[in-house]
Amino acid sequence: MAVRGNSIIKGIEINEVIRLLNRAYADEWLAYYQYFIEAKVITGIMKDAAIAELNQHATDELRHANMVADRILQLGGTPLLHPQEWFSHTNCGYEEPKEFDVVAILEDSIKGEQCAISTYSSIADMVKDKDIITYDIVSQILADEVEHEEDLQSLHDDIADFVKDIKNSCNR
Ligand SMILES: [Fe+2]
Ligand SMILES: [Fe+2]
Asked: What is the pLDDT of residues 54-72, one digit of tens each?
């Protein structure tokens, strides 16, 4: 634990920061697995573009898990040690893919990103002006989650438009 490093945290309990970060850590692992498995089972039109996006997001979520775990350790905490704890600590839960078509998968993923944005935004509010380092880390992650939502939404809209055009031309 970084004694001087932690002494600069003011106005919030370090254990509270660790608790918030461990919940986010659970979210990142579940998000990682959700993208990983979605990229495997996805079917339908333009699925290759979606697979590339989902795999990129999986890589990013794992990188976030790394960043969060390192900060927890720096604060003197221990990242969750058992995958079962991911389910008891998660903010955003896990959206098991039930329908495998591209549009349904993208919609599930957008929901996940929206939850991640709310989670990191509230952590940023809680640590702002109190724990600068955690604030910096969660701000970086938050920027990625905003980009993720945007990427998924624009892909979703492109595919939905494409499907609509095909249906229209078939009905002509
Ligand atoms: Fe993430
Ligand atoms: Fe994300």
From this structure: 999 999 999 999 999 999 9
Q: Does pTM surpass 0.90? A: yes
Q: Which of 75, 62, 76 is nearest to 25 (CA)?
A: 62
Q: Which ligand is nearest to the CA of 56?
A: 2
> How many angstroms is it from 71 CA to the middle of ligand 2?
19
pLDDT digits (tens, 9 = 90+) for 5-34: 898 999 999 999 999 999 999 999 999 999
Task: For residue 47, report the distance from its CA to the centre of ligand 1, in Å.
Answer: 22
In a domain, 166, yes or no: yes
Is 1 a member of any domain? no
Position 6 in a domain: no
DSSP reduced 3-state for 123 = helix
Name the residue range of residue 148's domain.
Answer: 12-171
